[in-house]
């Protein structure tokens, strides 16, 4: 393959001003939100339309050059990490909101549109529920690739529950409609297969999303506890009572201290855990539900329960939670964000294990998590200037992941596998499972050009599709016959 | 009829069938065998002996079920913990419908309005492929993005990719009370307007349905929770209609309307705003209809193939029940991604023995 010729072709397609090859400029793109990994691609191209994306992918296909699609670059698993000998296709110029169809509760957007822009475009009557913390900047295309979640998915579900249709470019350059504006398009649910495939099946150039009415009322409270065990108990009681809050978020002592220093939201510094519970829905349900939640928190040993009196106070409660990752800089020069899931009932034992690991490694671990669905985000604090610390932090984080999987959970709840988690895949999936994944991959991308080296633990090639039926030897010999 | 007693045995049987090119039809409760295209079948593979509830994790609101488990049975078990699997399609003769069959056909009932279809509730799946592979995807936690989501690929695949052996599902709390606001009318456009108003209001309904038969119909809006009766009353105050507190029979009728003994049932998926037009077309075709008014998914029962053509011309859809002996094309037109779908089929069912001819695109 002649990459220089390809790069020239990319310039013809997207315009030379939208092709980046200078090493200094390439540096901007060498990592996504996970800074531990850095790779410079041969070229970055920023196509301006679906047609240009198609031509770029086609050109890569013809030159057998691998490519990686990138949205806003906020991903936390290295999913948009460039391929060294490949092309990085950046979708940030595709940012048109193509259609707002509130009559049918749909919106059609290009992949570079941000998550928050979608909710703004359908407001104030409707909203788009998946709300990753990065929603101000993260793109819908990236959300589709990662099947992004957020704080409200315990009640509302994930990206995959809201995408009804996709226009995608397959790795051979074919532009294809999957699904549509209607639900249940005939045939296999290839939209469901594509969402969350981390850029390994193709690249989306148009996304149709379902949106829902804004709830009649939203009630938010923060409860403080001496210990995460009690907060966890409160969550269990709330869920067991049949209450489905819009969000249940927990922070432990260290997370509270860091976020309080950063935001001055008024969280209690003497608390060992804070629980944010948000109920939304019909007024008639939320009022009684809120009373019940308060009662469950008190019964579990809450030292204080604060109910937001107005929108300003609600925002303040959330400000602390949303700032959690960024605020870690206040207590540690560097930190490593982990993302894993465990069955909610196993929370106390895993939190105790995290305490033990923290003592064993001599590293602080702050815990911030989506408690409703058991999605942990331990933040392992370390000093990156000390040689070997980064590796030890990662090792500690890895032991947390393992504990979650052993408890029946998952290696990732919302950040994706990407580059960072692929070596954990065998802890959840057997060889035959991975082989089944590969079958899907091969039906979309037989040449392995789309985001190679991600998700799967070891490189795999696609075999030939088996030929037509041949007579079985037993059948030929008359030992067995067709029934 | 073969009835394997374990996942491994099921996979072995599939492998042997693949090697001998015998076409296999997976069978659960046998309540939906006529659906889709008329396929080639050499033998039936029953999930009747794979019917266990492997796990019910009440505290986590999840369960792991073998494919042959009957929905009616598992609901009884979940109800003891105040929980439910939020799927309520019709269960067929003797309530025989199994979770495997429901997932394989992507079937659903009125609860879909709030909780989604099988694709949305399956959080993990284990399948056997025609080369003897047993593979799983997902897991048993609600939130999980590790690996590809084969549950979605297999949901609604009509048994053409592999045999579903078991699924992990998300459960929901069973609501304390339910009540329905019922709006009757003989004007299709008035019903469509009421349905649209309800779908756009922040009511958080458990179900929002429509029905239509011979010039008259109704919209049904079901509230569920601690204040359901109060909320149904509020709807009636605002939009007219009547409150029905003991509403189970109403909803049983909605579910029953998704099946027919003597007509042709077409499952249609339209944009919600086309509901008025759909009712009009159904009326003109002499059809009856039940459906999810807020979602645009409807079951239209037509008397004959010419009426079927009239509805399908505008709304597409797939044919489910039909009287014996009626010849028709179950899926048309061919989906735009049919070529890609055939590639998926070739990879997952390399022997090409699973329900050949039953699915869209001639798969």
Textual characterization of the structure:
Chain A is built from 17 helices and 19 strands. Chain A has helices at 3-14, 23-26, 50-63, 115-122, 140-146, 153-156, 190-194, 228-240, 253-263, 283-299, 311-322, 324-327, 347-361, 389-406, 425-428, 431-444, 473-476, and strands spanning 19-20, 43-45, 67-70, 87-90, 97-101, 106-109, 126-127, 163-169, 175-179, 203-210, 212-213, 217-225, 247-252, 273-281, 304-307, 334-337, 340-341, 365-370, 375-382. In chain A, helix 13 (347-361) packs antiparallel against helix 14 (389-406). The longest helix of chain A is centred in the C-terminal third of the chain and has 18 residues, at 389-406. The longest helix of chain B has 13 residues, at 7-19. Chain B starts with 6 loop residues before the first helix and ends in a 15-residue tail after the last helix. The model of chain B has no long low-confidence stretch (mean pLDDT 97).
Largest sheet, spatial ordering of strands of chain B: 13-10-12-11-15-16-14-17
Q: What percent of the residues of chain B sit in helical stretches (DSSP H or I)?
A: 25-40%
Radius of gyration of chain B, in Å, reads 21 Å
> Main β-sheet of chain B: number of strands, strand sense, barrel status?
8 strands, antiparallel
Strand elements of chain A, count: 19
Question: For the terminal residues of chain A, how far apart are their CA atoms?
Answer: 51 Å
Q: What are the segments of chain A in which pLDDT stays under 50 over at least 5 consecutive residues?
A: 479-483
Q: Strand portion of chain B, in percent?
A: 15-25%
Mean pLDDT of chain A comes to 93
Q: How many helix segments of chain A? A: 17
As residue ranges, the low-confidence spans of chain B are none
Q: Structural class, judged by helices and strands of chain B?
A: alpha+beta
The protein's oligomeric status is heterodimer
Radius of gyration of chain A: 24 Å
Helical residue percent band of chain A? 25-40%
- Residue-averaged pLDDT of chain B: 97
Beta-strand content estimate of chain A: 15-25%
Greatest interface by residues involved: A-B, 99 and 93 residues
Distance between the termini of chain B: 23 Å
The main sheet of chain A comes to: 8 strands, antiparallel
- Number of strand segments of chain B: 17
């Amino acid at each position: 393959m002649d990459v220089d010729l390809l790069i020239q072709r990319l310039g013809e397609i997207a315009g030379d001003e939208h092709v980046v090859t200078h090493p200094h400029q390439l540096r901007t793109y060498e990592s996504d939100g996970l800074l531990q990994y850095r790779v410079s691609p041969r070229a970055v191209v920023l196509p301006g339309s679906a047609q240009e994306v198609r031509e770029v992918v086609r050109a890569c296909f013809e030159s057998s050059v691998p490519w990686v699609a990138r949205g806003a670059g906020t991903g936390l698993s290295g999913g948009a990490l460039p391929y060294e000998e490949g092309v990085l296709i950046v979708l940030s110029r595709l940012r048109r909101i193509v259609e707002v169809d509130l009559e049918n509760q749909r919106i059609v957007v290009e992949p570079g549109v941000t998550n928050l822009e979608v909710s703004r475009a359908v407001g104030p009557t409707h909203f788009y529920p998946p709300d990753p913390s990065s929603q101000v900047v993260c793109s819908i295309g990236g959300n589709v690739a990662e099947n992004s979640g957020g704080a409200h998915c315990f009640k509302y579900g994930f990206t995959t529950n809201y995408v009804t249709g996709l226009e995608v470019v397959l790795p051979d350059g074919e532009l294809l409609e999957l699904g549509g504006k209607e639900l249940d398009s005939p045939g296999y649910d290839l939209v469901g297969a594509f969402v969350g495939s981390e850029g390994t099946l193709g690249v989306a150039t148009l996304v149709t999303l379902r949106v829902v009415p804004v709830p009649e009322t939203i009630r938010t409270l923060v409860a403080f506890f001496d210990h995460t065990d009690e907060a966890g108990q409160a969550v269990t009681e709330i869920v067991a009572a049949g209450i489905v809050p819009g969000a249940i978020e927990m922070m432990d002592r260290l997370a509270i201290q860091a976020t309080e220093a950063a935001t001055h939201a008024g969280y209690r510094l003497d608390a060992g855990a804070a629980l944010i519970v948000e109920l939304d829905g019909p007024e008639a349900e939320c009022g009684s539900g809120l009373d019940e939640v308060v009662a469950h928190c008190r019964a579990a040993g809450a030292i204080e329960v604060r109910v937001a009196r107005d929108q300003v106070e609600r925002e303040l409660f959330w400000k602390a939670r949303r700032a959690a990752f960024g605020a870690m800089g206040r207590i540690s020069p560097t930190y490593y964000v982990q993302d894993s899931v465990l069955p909610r009932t196993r929370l106390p034992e895993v939190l105790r294990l995290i305490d033990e690991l923290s003592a064993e490694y001599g590293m602080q671990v702050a815990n911030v998590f989506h408690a409703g669905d058991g999605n942990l985000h331990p933040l392992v604090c370390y000093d990156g200037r000390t040689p070997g610390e980064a590796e030890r932090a990662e090792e500690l984080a890895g032991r947390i992941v393992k504990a979650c999987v052993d408890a029946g959970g998952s290696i990732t709840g919302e950040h994706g596998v990407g580059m960072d988690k692929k070596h954990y895949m065998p802890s959840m999936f057997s060889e035959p499972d991975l082989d089944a994944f590969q079958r899907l991959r091969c039906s979309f991308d037989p040449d392995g050009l789309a985001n190679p080296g991600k998700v799967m633990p070891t490189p795999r090639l696609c075999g030939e599709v088996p030929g037509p039926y041949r007579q079985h030897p037993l059948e030929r010999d008359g030992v067995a016959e067709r029934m | 009829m073969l009835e394997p007693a374990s996942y491994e045995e099921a996979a072995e049987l599939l492998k042997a069938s693949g090697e001998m090119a015998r076409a296999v039809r997976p069978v659960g409760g046998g309540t939906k065998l006529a659906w889709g295209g008329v396929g080639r079948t050499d033998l039936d593979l029953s999930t009747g002996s794979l019917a266990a509830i492997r796990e019910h994790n009440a505290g986590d609101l999840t369960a792991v079920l073998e494919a042959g488990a009957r929905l009616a049975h598992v609901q009884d078990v979940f109800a003891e913990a105040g929980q439910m699997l939020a799927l309520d399609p019709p269960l067929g003769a003797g309530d025989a419908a199994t979770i495997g069959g429901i997932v394989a056909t992507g079937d659903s009932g009125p609860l879909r309005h709030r909780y989604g279809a099988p694709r949305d509730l399956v959080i993990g799946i284990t399948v056997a492929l025609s080369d003897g592979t047993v593979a799983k995807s997902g897991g048993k936690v609600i939130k999980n993005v590790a690996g590809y989501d084969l549950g979605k690929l297999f949901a609604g695949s009509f048994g053409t990719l592999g045999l579903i052996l078991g699924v992990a599902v998300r459960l929901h709390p069973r609501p304390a009370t339910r009540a329905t606001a019922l709006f009757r009318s003989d004007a299709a456009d008035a019903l469509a307007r009421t349905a649209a108003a309800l779908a756009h209001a922040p009511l958080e309904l458990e179900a929002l349905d429509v029905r239509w038969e011979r010039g008259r119909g109704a919209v049904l809006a079901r509230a569920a929770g601690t204040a359901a009766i109060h909320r149904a009353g509020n709807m009636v105050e605002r939009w007219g209609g009547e409150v029905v507190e003991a509403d189970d029979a109403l909803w049983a009728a909605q579910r029953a309307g998704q099946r027919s003994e003597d007509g042709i049932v077409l499952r249609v998926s339209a944009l919600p705003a086309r509901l008025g037009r759909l009712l009009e077309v159904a009326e003109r075709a002499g059809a009856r209809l039940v459906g999810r008014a807020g979602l645009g998914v409807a079951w239209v029962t037509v008397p004959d193939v010419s009426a079927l053509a009239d509805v399908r011309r505008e709304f597409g859809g797939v044919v489910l029940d039909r009287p014996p002996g009626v010849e028709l094309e179950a899926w048309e037109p061919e989906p735009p991604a049919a070529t890609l779908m055939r590639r998926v089929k070739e990879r997952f069912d390399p022997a090409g023995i699973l329900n050949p001819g039953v699915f869209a695109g001639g798969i």
